[in-house]
Amino acid sequence: MTQLIKARQGIITPEVERLAKVEGLTSDELCAKVASGRVVIMKNKQHKNCIAIAVGEGLRTKVNANIGTSPDCVDFADELHKINVAVAAGADTIMELSIGGDVDAFHHQVLEKFTLPIGSVPSYQGGMESIAKHGSVVGMKADDMFEMIERQAKRGIDFMAIHAALNMSIIERLKNQGRITDIVSRGGAFLTGWMFHNEQENPLYAQFDRVLEICKRYDVTLSIGDAIRPGCIEDSLDRAQVQGLIVAGELVQRALEAGVQVMVEGPGHVPLDQIPATILLQKQLCHHVPYYILGNLVTDIAAGYDHIAGAIGATTAAISGADFICYVTPAEHLRLPTAEDVHAGVIATRIATHAADIVTGVKGAREWDLAMAHARKALDWEKQIELSIDPPTARRIRGERNEEGAEACSMCGGFCAMKLVGEHLGKTGGSC
Amino acid sequence: MTQLIKARQGIITPEVERLAKVEGLTSDELCAKVASGRVVIMKNKQHKNCIAIAVGEGLRTKVNANIGTSPDCVDFADELHKINVAVAAGADTIMELSIGGDVDAFHHQVLEKFTLPIGSVPSYQGGMESIAKHGSVVGMKADDMFEMIERQAKRGIDFMAIHAALNMSIIERLKNQGRITDIVSRGGAFLTGWMFHNEQENPLYAQFDRVLEICKRYDVTLSIGDAIRPGCIEDSLDRAQVQGLIVAGELVQRALEAGVQVMVEGPGHVPLDQIPATILLQKQLCHHVPYYILGNLVTDIAAGYDHIAGAIGATTAAISGADFICYVTPAEHLRLPTAEDVHAGVIATRIATHAADIVTGVKGAREWDLAMAHARKALDWEKQIELSIDPPTARRIRGERNEEGAEACSMCGGFCAMKLVGEHLGKTGGSC
């Protein structure tokens, strides 16, 4: 039985009991949210050492970090290092997206080594094997797709992006409509190529029940991949995207009926004013299951700084109801991220999700800022550093130009506003 | 005559004529905006080599970079270097905020060397001189304050933050109300200390006409300093802040009546959901003159990454009507920024203002993203780098892991979605 089915039966699982405490709810409240499909509990039954997390409505907004090799850069030790960096920076989940090297062995290593939920896109490894066997992605057999999903589910992958909400009708609409960037989802592109080449419907759509059957067996959280997401600001909320979302909603309904935990993946490139509508539409069309978005990137021109463009969009998105944010790193659109990029991406995304959690009233969010404000007023630098989003970085920056133990900082020195006013209002000073 | 007075008389100045073209308006349209006070043209008559800029409603959102020494770090060569870095990164204006060393000489040097508008806070240099002469900031004479404003206006400072919207009544209200961070504005703190010590009303408020007279003579754009801005999320939109804004509005009215170009400085720390109301309130209470904000910082806990917290807030603020954004650097709350911090701060803020300009329909904004989207689809890497917000950084990042001239990038290699789909939809590929 999946967490969803158990919740519907009113069974408080150990995971629900623990996670309710973590999120500041009662077990009954969290159980009801899981039963409604508005919250998923991510943990594959086979990922024995996994410490489950809850994602969805009213909970702390979660952050995912993508790692993985590319055909040109296969260095699994470096990818392991990136996971360690992401975890240290506060990522809630990791998506392992390798498309080069021995992925089977690497997945086993990652699942054994890490206790946070691990996600994947099975069609990536499927694509690699197809190239090895048939010389191309499009040579893949439909059965191979399901075999790969089964293989990854069995080994313990906790959540999977499956590009099932893509079919001939959507692609036809896309072609008729025209679009600047066509398809920018890697999984979506594989399948589109496959469908054109084989002149067949997308097997993941046509045989969606096979996907559900596997996810149900292992309690894999199904993430309906956003195959048709826009790749630039100009394409945002076009008919193809909305059509994809309608189909995603239909699949969500079937997943819920089957007792499969499900969420929906979203864009991508969205101008800021379109973010609330984008999130609302997903929630309405997809039974309010969790929305897992990439960014949102609020401009196309920030290559080199897309973690910032992503953080801007993620804040408004999370306030609007997005539940789970895939980070964007400074390397997005340019190259595979380094460990340094991974760190920058996780921290930027956590700033965004926290800024949103303050607004939506997530328990503990505002209290964190309040503690920082008091530490500033008290000129308690050690406390300020401890409370900052990334203490080692705050400590390094402050240390570069400040005497150890100095009361004010080098920005104002003796001109510190908090000190000046504190002397007159009869309180201790602080930092601006 | 100031630009405001000339505009009221229907005179199209050379600055209005040139800036209308820059902003994509007709000269008459821009002239009408200047006449209404909703746009200011920044340029002191004495800053001969200054290339004026326009700030306000419907125009491209502008970015300011603060530089300046502190008592503990006096290195004017380094501050000059920071200005060069800020200009190269695309800052529209510089505020020179030194509180250490020979500020007179440095101001002359900066005004001679740079053609963009230069701002200041005269009470900083005033405070320094008071410490030298009287041993403390609070020993300053009221006349000294006006002498300093006059001295800086005469030398050509284009815009000045004057903390006139602070009086005994506001401070009394602040005390009665209670506030976590009291006063975090450096200028506001000077004056509060001065008022307590001297048991006198704020001279800049009590003798505001003297401020106006000086600003009018040199066509200095007056920035009503946000002396009472909150220093943390929890204090946002408290009664003291709103009281300060009401008084600012009263001063704006007097400035407009006197023919002085005026804008209002704003926060600071604001949770994201309070940003639209904060901007709207300023616009309504202050005759819709330009709003010049610091950030907004949407969380207090991002020390070390406050440029990101600031960029998040700045985007929503600019969409909500903020016209002019003072950058925040990664060093905020920790120490004086380095040149590297200045660069990071300007770029992050420009990403934010551009993302907002896309939404508000500023001419050329959406077109920039569109050009990037086409370059991505065409896999034209040179063009993508040229079009990115900071080409040298984009080039460096891409170069680190990509072969020169390679079509795809190392993120996907041969698995590039744009390539895969392009082959089937009969177009050239692109980058995800």
Automatic annotation (TrEMBL), chains A, B:
Catalytic reactions on record: 5-amino-1-(5-phospho-beta-D-ribosyl)imidazole + S-adenosyl-L-methionine = 4-amino-2-methyl-5-(phosphooxymethyl)pyrimidine + CO + 5'-deoxyadenosine + formate + L-methionine + 3 H(+)
Gene3D superfamilies in the record: 6.10.250.620, Radical SAM ThiC family, central domain
Note describing how the cofactor binds: Binds 1 [4Fe-4S] cluster per subunit. The cluster is coordinated with 3 cysteines and an exchangeable S-adenosyl-L-methionine.
EC number(s) on file: 4.1.99.17
Keywords: 4Fe-4S, Iron, Iron-sulfur, Lyase, Metal-binding, S-adenosyl-L-methionine, Thiamine biosynthesis, Zinc
Short name of one Pfam family: ThiC_Rad_SAM
UniProt record, GO biological process: thiamine biosynthetic process; thiamine diphosphate biosynthetic process
Tagged with keyword Iron: yes
UniProt-recorded Gene Ontology molecular function terms: 4 iron, 4 sulfur cluster binding; phosphomethylpyrimidine synthase activity; zinc ion binding
CC cofactor: [4Fe-4S] cluster
Pathway terms, separated by semicolons: Cofactor biosynthesis; thiamine diphosphate biosynthesis
Binding annotation for substrate: 66, 95, 124, 163, 185-187, 226-229, 265, 292
Enzyme class, broadest EC rank: lyase
Residues noted as binding Zn(2+) in the record, renumbered to the chain: 269, 333
Entry keyword annotation includes 4Fe-4S: yes
Residues reported in the UniProt entry to bind [4Fe-4S] cluster: 409, 412, 416
PANTHER family from the UniProt entry: PHOSPHOMETHYLPYRIMIDINE SYNTHASE, CHLOROPLASTIC, THIAMINE BIOSYNTHESIS PROTEIN THIC
Role according to the record: Catalyzes the synthesis of the hydroxymethylpyrimidine phosphate (HMP-P) moiety of thiamine from aminoimidazole ribotide (AIR) in a radical S-adenosyl-L-methionine (SAM)-dependent reaction.
Membership in a protein family: Belongs to the ThiC family.
Official protein name in the record: Phosphomethylpyrimidine synthase
Organism: Desulfosporosinus fructosivorans
Gene assigned in the entry: bzaB
